[in-house]
Amino acid sequence: VQLVESGGGLVQPGGSLRLSCAASGFTFSSYGMRWYRQAPGKERELVATISSTGAITNYLDSVKGRFTMSRDNAKSTVFLQMNNLKPEDTAVYYCNRFPRLDYWGKGTLVTVSS
């Protein structure tokens, strides 16, 4: 199993980023997927969930209307489009399967700062 997150970086408040997560080692199209984040000194929290087909998504209240999760089953990849970023979105972002794997990728760091 492998989960490889990418697309993070430094962005000003109000800016946008698109995160990607390439998955391998399991039948990607059969599972829901989730994005999590962990801010410095805080617990990891669930940000977004997408069903196996992509038809259903759910979001953390604080990101609703700003973040959009999608997936490409042909490429075993999920995405997180993040718009109108705020300093409180600063965190390392991780993807994982649902049900969750014990394995975690390295994550990708998002820093929102002026």
Explained architecture:
The mean pLDDT is 97. The radius of gyration is 13 Å and the shape is globular. 0% of the residues lie in helices and 50% in strands. The chain starts with a strand and ends with a strand. It has strands at residues 2-6, 9-11, 17-24, 32-38, 45-50, 57-59, 67-72, 77-82, 91-98, 108-112. It has 114 residues and is mainly β. The strands form two sheets. A six-stranded mixed sheet has the order 2-10-9-4-5-6, with no helix packed on it. Strands 1-3-8-7 form a four-stranded antiparallel sheet, with no helix packed on it.
Please render the helix and strand layout as text:
Blueprint: E1 2-6, E2 9-11, E3 17-24, E4 32-38, E5 45-50, E6 57-59, E7 67-72, E8 77-82, E9 91-98, E10 108-112
Parallel strand pairs: 2-10
Antiparallel strand pairs: 1-3, 3-8, 4-5, 4-9, 5-6, 7-8, 9-10
What general outline do the C-alpha atoms trace? globular
**Roughly how much helix do the residues carry, as a percent range?**
under 10%
Mean pLDDT: 97
Low-confidence stretches: none
Quick overview of this protein structure:
This protein has 114 residues and is mostly beta strands. It contains no helices and ten strands.
